[in-house]
Amino acid sequence: MTMETPKYLLEADDDARKSPVRLVVVQGERRPAVDAADEAQVMTWPHLMLREAIALVALSLALSLLAIFFDAPLEEIANAQKTPNPAKAPWYFLGLQELLHYYPPLVSGVILPGLVVVALIVIPYFNINLKREAFWQENIKRKLVYFWASILALSVIFLFSSAHPVWPILIPLWVIAGLMMVPAVSPTRTGWRGWLGDRSLAFWVFLWFLLASTALTVIGTFFRGPGWQYTIPWIDGVY
Amino acid sequence: MLRILTNPQSLIDALTQNRVFRSIVRRGLSDTNRNRSLAIFSNFFLHIHPVKVNVSAIRFTRTFYLGGLSAATLFILIVTGVFLMFYYHPSVPRAYDDMKDLQYVVYMGPFLRNLHRWGAHAMVALVLLHMVRVFFAGAYRPPREFNWVIGVVLLLLTILLSYTGYLLPWDQLAFWGVTVGTNMADAVPLMGEQIKFLLLGGTKVNENALLRFYVLHCVLLPLALILMLCVHIWRVRKDGGIYLGDEEKPETEERP
Ligand code: HEM
Fold first, then answer.
1. Are A70 and B118 in contact (CB under 8 A)?
2. d(Cα B204, Cα B210) in Å, to the nearest integer?
3. At what angle do helices B145-167 and B221-238 cross, to 10 degrees?
4. Of the ranges A184-193, B22-31, B70-79, which is most confident?
5. Nearest partner of A221 among B145, B125, B153, judged by Cα
6. Average pLDDT, rounded, for chain A
7. Where are the domains of chain B?
8. Top-level CATH class of B59-243?
9. Burial of B221 from C-beta contacts in 10 A (0-12 / 13-18 / 19+)
10. Residue B249: its chain A contacts at CB < 8 A?
11. Which one of B176, B195, B252 makes the best mutation probe of the A interface by having the most chain A beta carbons within 10 Å?
12. For B4, which of A50, B56, B145, B233 is 20 to 30 Å away at the CA?
């Protein structure tokens, strides 16, 4: 009678040739960037370590000086009966609080920030643009139609969806539309027009986010006072 | 003794050429490239770096060191934060009294609190700037796309950390800043009220909210941030180091 080999056999083996040690797994898609090795290299120690040390010291110095000369604010004890006017969130939320002036909380506090986070996450996945394909490279006619349709739609949305036109979003939109049109009108491959022409769609969308959110944050931080009315920081002070 | 003090080289030698020091730092200040390599990869803290780096990867204008500075700010915040925890009770009105103590009683208390406060603002700003720099460098594209997503998580965690800390002094600024923000949760369709209740431990900002924000701020969010940061920095290396530019790489173009 022959012994049946058990299905799962615990094999102890100390022969390195029989149980090879995995040194490296080369995957087709994600190889380490060894192909850039002709670039000049330096030793991490001391060159990078020294630079990191300098950066760390500079940062510590800057923050320490700030902490020595400027005191963190501390107001009266919290009082639910006494609402300050204006009641402002910390600066990184003032862009959203400024939007609250235009849209109901569902739009400005949930939908728009949600869309921004989703957009940030999908940026590397849409229009991957490996060759940094310039926006106006192919199908210029069809793209022009889509381009103006989108700009028009976005303009209409931000002009009429709120009681006031949302200028901090609209003006960056139009500036960017103008810049994007330059290479379409004069397709030069060199100079600053060539540079504009080489930008991808992702670049323009991100630039729009960046300009609009900066504008909203700056307005909310410096130009809004009691009742969320406009104030001039150098005349009325910063609230 | 005197001889050692007047001769810096022998002082350094005396300090670094002994068994105790060598058991901690395995290689001294190294002179040969072999020892310099070993200094990096035989050190737990330094092995996040490769032994050699491209010249252009360490150039200031490549990264402006913004990622590194974000991490350094995080480190300063953890150190000052631990010290603050020694003086802080997350209850009403004790929390506010502790702030006053930090201002007037605790030795170097104002410096400690100021450093933590400005550090927190600096970290949010540095992380935002780091994201902008990564985007304009084009470093978010494959193979780094998932590291960008991890970055977005890090950004959200950083903002949440800063925001939960904002409530802890329990002054008017803290209370109303957080009230404005958490009122937004009401706007979430269907489960807005529940979300707000979960966050605040009640329907308003009160001492339950203070305790929840304290636990989030001192335990949960820092742990999550540090964990994600480890993955982030590990992936920077696994994706081939800092993105250096746009040379056409035939292999990567074939990706479907
Ligand atoms: C707690 C916050 C963060 C820390 C401490 C951090 C740290 C770092 C460090 C040290 C690097 C190495 C290169 C450099 O310094 O630029 C890096 C690279 C990178 N980071 Fe971050 N990061 C953070 C947040 C983010 C965010 C918010 C994003 C994007 C949404 C992001 C995306 C990336 C990407 C894609 C790289 C690779 C860049 C390249 O290859 O050039 N990180 N990060």
1. yes
2. 11
3. 160
4. B70-79
5. B125
6. 85
7. 13-43, 59-243
8. mainly alpha
9. buried
10. 35
11. B176
12. A50
